[in-house]
Amino acid sequence: MRERIGYLPNIGEESFELKILSFEGRLGKVEFEIPLLSQRQLEKVIATVKKASATVLKSMTVTEIISIIDRAIETMLDRNSPYRRMAEELLPIVTGYDAEMIRLGLTRFLKKFRKPELQRFVIEDFDNPLVLDDFQPRIKGGYSKAMGPDLIFHVWAGNVPALPLWSLISGLLVKGGNIGKVSSSEPLFAGWFAQILVDICPRLADTLAIVWWKGGDEEREKVILPSSDVVVGYGGNHSLESLRKRAPHTTRFLAFGHKISFGVIGNSTLDTRKVWKLAHQAAFDMIQFDQQGCYSPQIYYVQKGGKIAPSEFAKYLAHELESFEKRFPRRGLSFEEVMEVNEWRNQEEISIYSNNNKELLSAHDGRWMVVYEEDAPFSPTCLNRVVKVITFDDIDDIAASIQPYHSFLQTVGIAATPNELFQWAQELGKAGVTRVTAIGEMTSPESGWHHDGRFNLLDLVQMVDIESSAKLLADDLASYHE
Known about the structure:
Helix content is 39%, strand content 20%. The chain has helices at residues 39-55, 62-77, 82-95, 99-110, 115-125, 165-173, 189-200, 218-224, 237-246, 275-287, 310-327, 335-352, 395-402, 418-431, 468-477; strands spanning 3-4, 17-25, 28-36, 136-137, 143-147, 151-155, 177-181, 208-211, 230-234, 252-256, 260-265, 297-303, 358-362, 369-373, 386-392, 409-415, 435-438, 462-466. Strands 13-14-15-12-11-16-17 form a seven-stranded mixed β-sheet, with helices on both faces. α1 runs parallel beside α8 (218-224), α2 crosses α7 (189-200) and α10 crosses α11. The radius of gyration is 24 Å and the shape is globular.
């Protein structure tokens, strides 16, 4: 019997059209059933989630919601729980990622949503988290309350396992009803998490839905887009722009498309005592889910003038990538990905003949590549453990090179002195970078980070203000007024 995936509230239906999603990898083959809702069924799901959002979620306190999420995360962190066992068994087959990478990556990711981190998540956007529960006094006078939407529609990508948790949990924290459309690449985790939440708190049963249909299904999008207060989309820039055009102008659209990230290594860090650890951390950021996250580095800029030359750092990095390949093998690539990697490699090899300051280091089977080049322009790679090491003299050189890519930049990992850290962050921020972190932490954003420079929760809510004049007038009209 195939396992049913996704999650639906109770809409009184007994039968659904079922689609079969099949996956095959080195560890075996699995198939799942997932409901494909008709337009009428989707309309009923939307109405059910909206009603439950208004009557259930909005009657709960944010503290209650945080506690429920914390318990759900604790379940997924428990390696003896059936959901965690399913995740460790099935996600390597579905995604192709190494099983040990999945195990360690899930734990590292899930810990960001425990109760203390969720509290930080909320206070990052709201100085007074009680504003999510009731009207709170404002410094300038009057009162304000953050009103969550009745329905948030999430369109999730499947490049990194469990990634839907960011927006799903954000939606719950602002007390919005949530309908999430999972990707065919990874349709499992969001549904599991929804079921865990409902197991812990049955009151949440009708407040969310995890659904699936093929991307670009305009018939179903015509049903859900006009009904949504907020649409949160992840994926390719072209598909997000197409979705944006089909959403009503009255719907708030939050798009998280493809981004480019890179590392910057100052010459003060390049000595024999530090370089091995630094190369290890740089390689880790690369191999974590094979650079499929927007925060994964595609380039390492290495400053000239250190005790270790940038060309030598490239060799250290190559050595660490080879070591990681033995422990966490790269996933199998699709035919299209293989062709893209081969084409990219061929172009780089051809260019080496006309450039004496360029070198390609690679695994014998091409499962990782490091291209070293002096003073080269900013140029993204083909991903899947492929990186460029580019030399630089001054941070202004990098800032000028990345400026044309301003709207596509996201994370920079920096290894430098304290003074350089803040100076470089200032210059790179002007050029479009929105997150600066340590090398080795690029693929692990902190709880409450400003995703692509925006807010996790503030962008989802609508603020309602009661001005001081209204309060004064109410006092004048009160029965106790003399």
